[in-house]
Specification:
- With 216 residues, the protein is of the alpha+beta class.
- The chain folds into two domains: 101 residues, Response regulator (Rossmann fold, 3-Layer(aba) Sandwich), CATH 3.40.50; 97 residues, Arc Repressor Mutant, subunit A (Orthogonal Bundle).
- Helices cover 39% and strands 18% of the residues.
- The chain contains eight helices and ten strands.
- The strands form three sheets. The chain has a four-stranded antiparallel beta sheet, with no helix packed on it. Strands 1-2-3 form a three-stranded parallel beta sheet, with helices on both faces. A three-stranded antiparallel beta sheet has the order 8-10-9.
- The longest helix has 16 residues.
- The mean pLDDT is 85.
Length: 216
Amino acid sequence: MNLEIEGHQIIEARNGYEALEYVRTKLPDLILLDVMMPELDGFETLRMIREFSSIPVIMLTAKGEENDKVYGLELGADDYVAKPFGPRELSSRIKAVLRRFENPSTSPNKAVLKIDDRFSIDFNRREVIIDNKHVKLRPTEYRLLYHLVENAGWTVTHEQLLAKVWGYEYRDEAHYVRLYVNYLREKIEADPTDPKYILTERGVGYRFVDYKAPVS
């Protein structure tokens, strides 16, 4: 009711299988996915959605432990709200997730940025090109990479990244940054366990390698 008052059109699915069908046929802008559902739980439903769609998903659950949050995010959720929550909190999270998907950052100066011989970024397609292969980034991954590259050579703090990529509502959610940095490293680094592009500044944040600096 609160979301409808704000102008959202709501489609209700009674179980996970019905939700999968609605994602395919009704093409919603965003999914609020409860973990506890009959026939197919929210985690399994999310895993199946991610096989064919990148639609933004916010998980709803009574479990607030960080392990459950991380598990949902690893499966491809874009946010996680633990019950009980107020309507204003949920509305704020929905707006923040939709902002990330509807207003992706773009580079006004260059469509394709070459980092080195194996790694380029196509800003128009929101893709990275690794060893001549196009790798599609999810919107949040792209925004995170964009802000790191825009500050190449400088350390960007956890708080700055949360504010720029997720929004000020997420300033206390440092695990989001860690998780999505890991996602990016899996896609762009030759060896994610020994990263060369996204470097950790322990206890502070992350720094993208200064690709413009002269090689000595």
